[in-house]
């Protein structure tokens, strides 16, 4: 037994050990009784060798990195204020005698323009981020 086996365990060590046990339990390596028995032993462990002996018959698991934080959304105008302003101006001008179909054409054209350009941008972004396309096809976005 080395000196490292005699080190006292901290609460963080116990929490890590209980998380490892929970992972083994969720994958079916431990029965319910075995899991709770080992979990009790985790919380009563005093030194690191007490914790390690609970995992001798289980495969070593690689700790999973925490999920990456989502990148903040870009500052772009929200659709609702733009649509509300367009409708207010359109209704005001229609009330003054401007034909309604002009505003329908402008609105439809804006929707088509937005849809077409947002799909192209997404497609380019997807292939720029997909490194798996490079080794197979030679360049991002190439097709066989």
Question: Can you walk through the features of this model?
Answer:
60% of the residues lie in helices and 0% in strands. It has 144 residues and is mostly helical. It is built from six helices and no strands. It has helices at 11-26, 32-44, 48-52, 79-95, 100-129, 133-137.
Write the layout of secondary structure elements.
Layout: H1 11-26, H2 32-44, H3 48-52, H4 79-95, H5 100-129, H6 133-137
Helix pairs in contact: 1-2
Q: Which structural category fits the helices and strands?
A: mainly alpha
| Count of alpha/pi helices | 6
Please tell me what the overall shape is: rod-shaped
Major β-sheet, in short? Answer: none
Roughly how many Å is the radius of gyration?
30 Å
What is the average per-residue confidence, as pLDDT, rounded to a whole number? 75
End-to-end distance, in Å?
Answer: 60 Å
Which segments are poorly predicted (pLDDT under 50) over 5 or more consecutive residues?
Answer: 129-144
Binned strand content: under 5%
Beta strands, count: 0
Helix content class: 55-70%
Encode the helix/strand succession as letters: HHHHHH
